[in-house]
C-alpha cells in the first residue's frame, strides 16, 4: 500500500469521478484506474463500485476510506511540521481576502507580522465572490480569507476569523412607492439589482440572492456597487460595515425583499493541506486563528 494510492482514492471520492481525480492529480485516467485496481488487489477488497456512471464506495470501501482519510491528514500534518522546521523567512507573503471582510479585523495582526518579519514583502489583494479560494487552489496565494462555500475540507484547513452580514439596501427614493414592509419579488424585478462580478472565473460569479427575471447591472467591486446604489440607480446587498454612516444618515435604507433576507456569513482563514507552509505564513495563520477565540 502506497501513500500515492490513498491520495488517488481520496481524489476519486472528493471529485466524484475517475476523470475528476485525473484532472486534479494531473495524471491520465488510465493511471488513476490502474492505481486503484492495484490497491484493491493488494487489499483483497473492492473499494469502489463501478456499476453507475459515478464510482461509489462499497461498504468495505467506506470503512477503509475513513481510516485512509485519517492517515492522509496525519501525513499532511507531518509534512507541514517538517516544512516549518526547515522554513526560512519568505521573500513574499501573499494573502487574498474577500472584499466583504472588514479589513480592520486583520490589520493589527498584519502589522505584528510585518514588524516581526520586516524583510518579507506582504502582498494583500482583495477578491470578489469565490476569488480568494480560486487563487488559493491555483497556488497564486499562500492564505485566503473567505467563506467555505463550495470548499472541500479534504483539501484545505480553515479556521474562523470574522463574521459579516450582507444586507439589501437602497436609496430611500427608489423604494418610496412601496407601502408594504415586505417588498415582493414581482415588484423588485422592475428595479435594477446591482451585483458584483466574481474574480475567480465564471464558476464563481454571483448566483445566490440574484432575483430571477429581474433587471441587473454588474460592477467590479463593492465600492462601485455602493456608489451606484447611493445614486438611486438600483438596489443590492452590501456588507453592514460599509453602510453604517449611510444608514444612520438615511441616505441608504435597509429593505425587506421577499426571499432575500440579510445573509450572515462566517469568514475563515484558509490554507491548502498539500502545500508547504512558510515561516511567515505559518505565523500569520496562527495569529489570525486567535481572532475568533
UniProtKB/TrEMBL annotation:
GO molecular function: DNA-binding transcription factor activity; transcription cis-regulatory region binding
Entry-linked InterPro entries: LysR_HTH_N, LysR_subst-bd
Keyword tRNA-binding: no
Entry protein name: LysR family transcriptional regulator
Alphabetical list of Pfam families matching this protein: HTH_1, LysR_substrate
Keywords: DNA-binding, Transcription, Transcription regulation
Domain HTH lysR-type: 1-58
